[in-house]
Amino acid sequence: MHVAFTMRNVPSEAASPIILAEKLTKVYAAGRLQVTAVRGVSLAILPGEFVAIVGPSGSGKSTLFYLLGGLTQATSGRVEIDGIDFASLNDAERTRLRKHRIGFVFQKFNLLPTLSAMGNIEIAYAVSGRKEPLDLKYLDHLSELLSIKGRLDHRPSELSGGEQQRVAIARALITRPAIVLADEPTGNLDTKNSDAVLEMLLKSNRELGQTTLMITHNPEAAAIAGRILYMRDGEIVREEKGNGHASVLPGALPGTIASSSASSTGSQRDAATV
What we know:
By secondary structure, this protein is of the alpha/beta class. The chain has a domain at 47-72 and 91-246: P-loop containing nucleotide triphosphate hydrolases (Rossmann fold), CATH 3.40.50. The protein contains seven helices and ten strands. The chain has helices spanning 61-68, 91-101, 117-127, 136-145, 161-173, 191-208, 219-222, and strands at 19-30, 33-45, 50-54, 76-81, 84-85, 102-105, 179-183, 211-216, 227-232, 235-241. Strands 6-7-8-3-9-10 form a six-stranded mixed beta sheet, sandwiched between helices.
């Protein structure tokens, strides 16, 4: 059964979600069959929250991740990022929104093997289309935060798995995205490196103020979040408070919202300003 959650009593000016999904559904065609990966999911995530979505393989959590990140289009329902409806944008505008608002961290590090760690970070910044020069002081801060300061001149093959994932996190953060989406960021790591990467995601959420959404099959990893949503059979079935500190807007209390009561927050901005 689909479980919907309601926003608690929160002042409207403090409760505007940075990620808003309403009745999201995604259906894939598998030959003559149709497979529903996500079934009518509605949720809201406030600025500064760290939210984990947990579920077994096939629960729909990765499909939901791709929908929320604008990497695939919903069959029905809608996604808003910072007040902008993905469905209202063309492909170029969606790409620009992702580049300017969202940083992605994946299970596979996806580092270019012929470039150094520094080169991988620089090319990500260049691809983002920002006109201002790379902020080296900010990069230095990120490198220290992620414990890779002395490793930036090394190629991926010369780095441990944990170091490669921390470089991938730095690559995601270098554009100062408002949102960090992490899909199984510890999936290819041993326990020691997993713990280090999770600690870095938590630090970046607290110290840099990004909204963080992490997809994982591991309840222990999810426990670092401020809020945990559990998925099964394409639906969010329950919600729990995590161990992490939720650094949301002053006066705001996080919570998902019921699709029946959800309303668009704020006026939609002109996609050309994204």
